TrEMBL record:
Species in which this protein is naturally found: Pelodiscus sinensis
InterPro entries: Clarin
Taxonomy of the source species: Eukaryota, Metazoa, Chordata, Craniata, Vertebrata
A GO cellular component annotation in the UniProt record: basal part of cell
Keywords of this entry: Membrane, Transmembrane, Transmembrane helix
UniProt topology in membrane: Multi-pass membrane protein
Protein name according to UniProt: Clarin 1
Gene of this entry: CLRN1
Keyword Transmembrane applies: yes
Pfam family, one: Clarin-2
Family: Belongs to the clarin family.
GO biological process per UniProt: actin filament organization; auditory receptor cell stereocilium organization; cell motility; equilibrioception; photoreceptor cell maintenance; positive regulation of lamellipodium assembly; sensory perception of light stimulus; sensory perception of sound
């Protein structure tokens, strides 16, 4: 492939990687990860609410990685309540998983920026082998893909398996019990999925530029070495 086309491909990959870093940084600071509704089960059972009456006992909840907001509905009108994960909710949530999600988000931002720098260096500089050349580009893209995948898996398990929304809704509630009525992932979560796809696309762009995958090179070298050994 001509050098100009390689530069163009690496520039595109670098811009995509930088856009991912900005998108993730913005996503981490928002509360647009989960949005759902919470049913006040105790209040609904007390008045045997059904149909349209049940809506008076369904509140809303929305949160991110650091803070959120919920509207408490128990038949007497909505009461908004803001909360933060640190330090208020650390005792009731799976703290290790939650901290791991934040940690991997930070790692993802760092390696997305590192990948951006190396893509631009390969486009306009004079890269040498190992981590500065194509092997490094594959490595940074693979790490970014892995971090994106881990973030989605860990956060999904925290929300669905550990019932994060219910734990937040029942925080400091003595006489009322709340159950999750509905919940869905919001924009910030889908940004992580888009970043995963972008970094996977970057791997394909590196291959399109004419650089073979590292493991394919190693297989070829092993085959050549084995043939030489057989000759001697």
């Amino acid at each position: 492939m001509p050098a100009q086309q390689k530069k163009f491909i690496f520039c595109i990959a670098g811009v995509l990687s930088f856009a991912c870093a900005l998108g993730i940084a913005a996503a981490v600071g928002t509360q647009l990860w989960i949005k759902g509704t919470i049913l006040c089960k105790t209040g609904a059972l007390l008045v045997n609410a059904t149909g349209p009456e049940l809506e008076k006992f369904i509140g809303e909840i929305q949160y991110g990685l650091f803070y959120g907001e919920r509207v408490r509905q128990c038949g007497l009108g909505g009461r908004p309540f803001r909360f933060s994960f640190f330090p208020d909710l650390l005792k009731i949530i799976p703290a290790s998983i939650h901290v791991s999600v934040i940690l991997f988000c930070t790692v993802l931002i760092v390696f997305a920026l590192v990948g951006t720098g190396f893509f631009m260096y390969n486009a306009f500089g004079n890269p040498y082998e190992t981590l500065h050349g194509p092997v490094g580009l594959y490595l940074w893209s693979f790490i970014s893909c892995s971090c994106s995948c881990l973030i989605m898996i860990l956060f999904s398990s925290e929300v669905k398996i550990h019932h994060l929304s219910e734990k937040i809704a029942n925080y400091q509630e003595g006489s009322f019990i709340f159950k999750t009525h509905s919940e869905q992932f919001e924009d910030s979560f889908w940004i992580i999925l888009v970043c995963f796809l972008v970094h996977f696309l970057n791997v394909l762009l590196i291959r399109l530029a004419g650089f073979k995958f590292p493991f394919s090179k190693s297989k070829e070298s092993e085959t050549t070495t084995g043939a030489v050994d057989l000759m001697y």
